[in-house]
Amino acid sequence: MIEFTGKATFSRGTQIIVGEKGLLKFGDDFRCNSNCIFNARTKIAFGDDCLLSWNVTLLDSDGHKIINLHEGSLLDGTKNISIGSHVWICSGITILKGVCIGNHTIIAAGSIITKRIDGEHILIGGHNKVLKQEIDWEV
Fold it and tell me: What is the pLDDT of residues 79-124, one digit of tens each?
């Protein structure tokens, strides 16, 4: 299911994939540039006033089953993604399962985010690193 809580804009080349039990939720004033991929097997949720640059990928699952050979069990292949309000996700970013990003955050270009990042008014870059604090952004 796809849910909109207000105005949303998507540019060309955007791919939206929602699983049978998945939810993709967009807050008000959502803006997405070209060639972004949303793959929601469980849940991907955005707050209000989010801006995505081009070539951004969000994956809340591994995409395929991964098996622990010693135990014969499946690894947990899905975890929700939560993006707060007033978040700017710059170009060429990959956000993977289990990520939670707070309000008023910027994610620097080319970053790979693989875990929850606590805090607001921060700049995140590289691989899960807080680069600056006490920041904000404007269009």
Answer: 999 999 999 999 999 999 999 999 999 999 999 999 999 999 999 9
**What would the two tokens of residue 12 be?**
């060309």
Q: What's the DSSP call for residue 60?
A: S
Q: 127, 93 in Cβ contact below 8 A?
A: no
Q: Which of 58, 108, 103, 100 is nearest to 85 (CA)?
A: 103
Q: Which of 35, 42, 25, 33 is nearest to 9 (CA)?
A: 33
Spatial strand order in the sheet of 57-59:
15-18, 37-40, 57-59, 94-95, 112-113
Report the distance separating Cα 123 and Cα 112, nearest Å: 13
